[in-house]
Model the fold of this input.
Amino acid sequence: MERLQKILQLSGVASRRQAALLIASGKVMVDGIFVYEPGYLVEANQSVTIDGKQLTQENRVYFALNKPTGYITTMSDPKKRKTILDLIDIKERVVPVGRLDNNTSGLLLLTNDGALLNRLIHPRYMLEKEYHVKVSGLLRKETSKEIEKGVDLGDFVTAPAKIEGVRYDDKRKNTYLKIIIYEGRYRQIRRMFECFGHPVLKLKRYRFGPITLEGIPTGAYRPLKIHEVKLLWHFSTAKDAQK
Done:
């Protein structure tokens, strides 16, 4: 099942906000019945019409983008800043799986598969996200252990994380490391290290679940292979199988 608003958005007929307005104004029907709630859940075999015209959903597509810094994770921006849309040429209307902030680079998945997207971004499915980080200062082992246990950021406490591959630049007093997290809150990693006096100087997402940046140049993207999409489904449904 998928939310009606998301179906309209991913079909390419409207943005998220425009889809909500279309539904609220009584222009959308499901199986011949007017629906006014954007969150109404639609089965795959149900018929959706807009102003009496049948909605046809696009083929499902999946891409991996190596986002450079200096681009925001949105498909449009009223301030005319550079967006990830400037980097891609995809005929289907895709949306990003989660976000990377302007100063963060690396792997960003794009799709029009709303069902998979919702699973990939939901924290209950605990998909690993690996980041390569450069922080100011020499990170002590004790600090790494504190970060791994979870950090109280005031508005929330981070879930346990893993820190690996720590390397020190004694001359410049910087630390390089890999951190694996299972959630993706706004500026989470930057805030985690700042709590211990180590501002993040460089941040790149290298891996999302089983998908990595391997072979994707900065600013480029590629379609996911069938087996990679199957892996994403497998990893995002593993928690359901454990019930």
Summary: The domain at 2-54 is CATH 3.10.290.10 (Structural Genomics Hypothetical 15.5 Kd Protein In mrcA-pckA Intergenic Region; Chain A). The radius of gyration is 20 Å. Residues 164 and 178 are 5 Å apart (CA to CA).
